[in-house]
Every structure is written in structure tokens, then in C-alpha cells.
Amino acid sequence: MPKQSAPQELAGIAPKLVEVTDEVLFGDVWERPGLSPRDRSLVTVSVLAALYRGEQLGYHLGVALDNGLTAEELSEAITHLAFYAGWPNAMTAITRLKQITDARDA
């Protein structure tokens, strides 16, 4: 999988945010050996879905699939979190997952 990076079009307005995203978040935190990229993706998707962070969720669902999670595993995680994070959050996340998997299948 290619290395993750902040959207470079944001560098003109927030160069430091892009820099620390690339260097600290993706260059350090995501590369730490304590969790696999697959596990980090599962945690990230779960938190984004639970907190209703839809703008970032789509990107990270794609990363999760690239990191080896299956659509079925992501669906199961989203179903599980519905009872802890709320039904609307889970329905939004599962709808986004369906859009992404449909686009990949097309």
C-alpha cells in the first residue's frame, strides 16, 4: 500500500498541519510496530464511525480494505459498534462502506 499522506492541496492554507500529519501521524504513529496496519485501520474506522466523522471515514474505509480488512469484517465491526455508538452512526458508516465496495467492484 502506498504511504498515507495528508491532502496536499491543504498545504497552501495549513502547511504545518499537512507536515505534522505526514511526519507524525502517518510517518510515526501509523508505522509503530505495536499494531499492524490492519489493526490500526480497524481502530481508526471504528472511532471515526463512532464519532460520526464521515468526512474522514470514507478515506479510512478504503485504507482498511487496502490493509487487508474485508468488507464483511468491517460490516461486523460497524454492526457491533451500533450498540455502543448509536444506530445513526452505524447506518451512516455502513452506507459509506457499501458505496466504497460498490465502486471498487464496478
Automatic annotation (TrEMBL):
<dbReference type="InterPro" id="IPR029032">
    <property type="entry name" value="AhpD-like"/>
</dbReference>
<dbReference type="InterPro" id="IPR052512">
    <property type="entry name" value="4CMD/NDH-1_regulator"/>
</dbReference>
<dbReference type="Pfam" id="PF02627">
    <property type="entry name" value="CMD"/>
</dbReference>
<dbReference type="InterPro" id="IPR003779">
    <property type="entry name" value="CMD-like"/>
</dbReference>
<protein>
    <submittedName>
        <fullName>Carboxymuconolactone decarboxylase family protein</fullName>
    </submittedName>
</protein>
<feature type="domain" description="Carboxymuconolactone decarboxylase-like">
    <location>
        <begin position="15"/>
        <end position="95"/>
    </location>
</feature>
